[in-house]
Amino acid sequence: MRFWIGAAGVALTAFSAPASAQTEPQTPIYGADLERFDYPYPVHWFETRSQGDAVRMAYLDVAPRGAPNGETVVLLHGKNFCAATWAQAIGVLAEAGYRVLAPDQIGFCKSSKPEGYQYSFRALASLTDALLDRVGAEKVTLVGHSTGGMLAMHYALLHPERLERLVLVNPLGLNDTVAEGVPYADLGTLRAEEAETDRASIKAYQQRVYYQGEWRPAYDRWVDMLAGQYASPEGDRVRDAQARLSDMIQSQPIVGQIPEIDVPTTLIIGQRDLTSFRRGSAPEAQRESIRTVPEAAETAVNRFPEARLIRLPELGHSPQIEAPEQFHRILLAALASGD
User: What pLDDT is stored for residue 242 in this prediction?
Assistant: First the structure.
């Protein structure tokens, strides 16, 4: 399976599209770098070099609308998401007085997808840290969703001095699914899976795994965002990046280092999330032993030096999309209080 983004980051091709897929709307063509997909706020660019290549990161930088509280929140998207999917959260946080930064990581969305790039969480964390230097952000709170939560944990190991706290929303990385029985997939296998990804498979995966079999018209925008990259003339560049990013997730577990994350952490977990990275590729007899994100969170919360777990019983993988008002209340409370 292909993940994310994620963040989210799970295999989209592992589930067949429903019969209704024959009547799916035509896939928009947004470009491999989402050139024709509108973001909710002005897009800024951080131009730098990485692995010998010139790269640029797209990011949103939204000033407080209410009385500034002097704090900065950095929103990290998942593998099947972009900075744009934080649109409502950005507005709520800005109204509450926060400066909000939301980057597209290298390999995703509007940012560069260099040919042959060796994706690693440390590389993405280092680029994110360089972006914070560039924009003058000092101490920040990281809010990471799905694969973005896994990135946030890696960042916390590298730069704990920069963090006020971590908020992890249905993050990957709370368990190692390969160690639990998912077979390792080489890059060729992951590329072959990506070759089968289209609008119907993206929607089918998200409907089953993220939204408990339900679907709302509002979700279609985010399906189109992803599908519009794949369907573009340079779609193979997107597929290669996504395959390499899946390899990053399966090959660079963080769970063993959770006790070293010495930053106050809040886990916000939709309990109906079925996300479990590449679980569908495991032998059927082993699948039940491979934990989903909510199952892994129950154990992982006790391994952080300082963490609390907030359970959302009726929600799935993306509570910020599924129930934004409820999620925003919880997020604001988590940011404003140490309780």
Answer: 98
